[in-house]
Design goal:
12 helices; single chain; two-stranded antiparallel ribbon; globular; mainly alpha; 2 strands
Length: about 180
């Protein structure tokens, strides 16, 4: 399978998206980890490779970015938009990674990095317009700011009708961490 992975570059982006979507909404979205180990994701989802290679050495996470995202996906209902958004919610972290003098990893401004990376991925993967907008909304860090909007009583204005769809992702993201949220 590892040798055959190189031929995946000859498959259309739409076909790859369809197959990845089937995997994400299946009972075993964690099979994406096997695709990473075999080198398949380097051809079909290189952003995920970067996420898998990015540690999160801080008191708030116990997994690298990729495994953390898969845990979030596993803990959310099998809805296409919800699972794609959960997978991509930290896609911008590798580009914003810094380490402080104590060896603690930080991802300052990662919502902006997620918005850029999420938008580019959605466009490259020919995701539907609705799914693309949802992924960018999530990647834009709006869900990570849910608590801020909620406390100010502005979440209805900020999230509109999407707020009920994304609250479960926010909750699952917090659940897939170890410790308190960043």
């Amino acid at each position: 399978m590892i040798i055959q992975a190189q031929y995946l570059k000859n498959i259309s982006a739409e076909r790859i998206r369809v197959e990845l979507t089937k995997l994400l909404v299946s009972d075993h979205p964690d099979k994406l980890l096997e695709a990473y180990v075999t080198g398949i994701t380097s051809y079909i989802l290189p952003e995920f490779d970067k996420m898998m290679e990015q540690p999160q050495n801080n008191p708030y996470h116990r997994y690298n970015v990729g495994v953390h995202s898969i845990e979030a996906v596993k803990n959310i209902r099998p809805d296409v938009t919800m699972r794609w958004a959960a997978l991509l919610h930290d896609v911008g972290k590798p580009a914003t990674h810094t380490v402080d003098e104590n060896g603690i990893d930080h991802f300052f401004d990662h919502p902006e990095g997620c918005a850029y990376s999420g938008k580019a991925f959605c466009e490259d993967s020919s995701l539907t317009t609705t799914l693309s907008k949802m992924c960018v909304l999530w990647s834009d860090g709006m869900i990570m700011e849910w608590e801020v909007f909620r406390k100010k009583g502005q979440y209805k204005k900020a999230f509109g009708r999407s707020r009920k769809r994304f609250l479960p992702i926010y909750n699952r993201d917090k659940k897939s961490r170890h410790g308190s949220p960043e």
